[in-house]
Backbone:
């Protein structure tokens, strides 16, 4: 057994149980048995837990002076992770976010994909990547690699997709997620991680609205009530979506029609393109007490901010999660970009066949 697997078992016993505690169907039972948890640890005592179910990031434990603090919302066990529909820490795809009317035209051919949010496709369909058991390619004390093959026609998408997600935990308390994909046919691909953060601790009474945020975004995408972009890119200047200067998330909360339609923030923010090099900080989240800061860097052109508006009695590690228990930062191509060629090729997320594409996003914790 690898050293990090031993660490993982110890953490599971200490923090929460991922035993099978719910009644599962035959297929779910197979998935539960096939899934496993991996732990990574750095030399500072920071630890993260990952699951082969959905190549998910399920725990992020910081060694605070007051004790260990898990800043990631997550399920209490494997069965709950399979049953929940809010994508806690999961890798989602083939196409993250929404595709309007679950359809698109590519190379003069019309494709109909799986609709799982009314008539729209959300995060790749009803059997999206967050419900698949990924193959564990490699493991070391500070690195894990997961891979998945999605066949031609999967959820209606064209071409076979080979996907790889690599997690690295560095000694400067940075979690780096590398994405590597290749398709056999022209196809939109837009992978992201759907972790929800609460820097006060996933068990804290304080919510996402009590965190401060600074975000280098120039525009946001207004949406209809289904979360589908209208097509407009609205400059954040003189709007409540302007986080270019550090601001409390709850300060201007639900103060405009765009937020009211979504029940809070659930919008794509177009990042300053001069900063999307994977090294520059595009966003910083600050805990309510100011004792933890999380800096985000990415090569993706946009980031979906979601304040957990629809976390309705979701079973969590320490309690049931409710609206605003955590905030997600999903780095990605803009939602429904496949149906908006006018936005430009750099925002489309269209992958050419037999070409390798790589992206990365990192989350560094300063405490």
Residues:
């Amino acid at each position: 057994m690898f050293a990090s697997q031993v660490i993982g078992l110890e953490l599971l016993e200490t923090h929460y149980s991922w035993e099978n505690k719910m009644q599962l169907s035959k297929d779910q039972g197979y998935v539960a048995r096939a899934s496993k948890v991996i732990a990574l640890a750095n030399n500072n005592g920071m630890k993260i837990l990952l699951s082969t179910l959905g190549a998910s990031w399920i725990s992020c434990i910081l060694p605070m002076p007051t004790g260990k603090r898990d800043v990631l919302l997550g399920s209490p066990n494997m069965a709950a992770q399979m049953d929940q529909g809010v994508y806690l820490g999961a890798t989602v795809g083939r196409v993250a976010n929404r595709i309007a009317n679950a359809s698109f035209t590519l190379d003069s051919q019309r494709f109909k994909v799986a609709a799982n949010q009314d008539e729209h496709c959300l995060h790749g369909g009803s059997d999206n990547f967050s419900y698949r058991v990924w193959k564990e390619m490699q493991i070391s004390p500070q690195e894990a690699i997961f891979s998945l093959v999605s066949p031609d026609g999967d959820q209606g998408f064209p071409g076979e997709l080979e996907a790889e997600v690599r997690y690295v935990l560095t000694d400067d308390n940075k979690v780096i997620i590398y994405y590597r994909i290749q398709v056999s046919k022209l196809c939109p691909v837009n992978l992201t991680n759907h972790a929800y953060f609460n820097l006060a601790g996933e068990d804290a009474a304080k919510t996402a609205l009590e965190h401060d945020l600074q975000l280098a975004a120039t525009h946001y995408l207004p949406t209809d009530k289904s979360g589908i972009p209208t097509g407009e890119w609205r400059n954040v200047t003189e709007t409540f979506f302007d986080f270019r200067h550090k601001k409390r998330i709850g300060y201007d909360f639900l103060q405009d029609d765009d937020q009211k339609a979504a029940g809070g923030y659930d919008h794509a923010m177009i990042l300053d393109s001069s900063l999307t090099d994977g090294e520059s900080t595009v966003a910083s989240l600050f805990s309510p007490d100011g004792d933890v800061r999380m800096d985000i860097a990415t090569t993706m052109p946009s980031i979906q901010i979601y304040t957990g508006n629809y976390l309705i009695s979701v079973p969590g590690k320490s309690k049931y999660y409710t609206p605003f228990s955590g905030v997600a930062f999903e780095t990605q191509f803009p939602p429904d970009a496949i149906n908006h060629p006018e936005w430009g090729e750099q925002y489309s997320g269209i992958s050419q066949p037999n070409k390798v594409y790589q992206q990365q996003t990192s989350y560094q914790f300063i405490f």
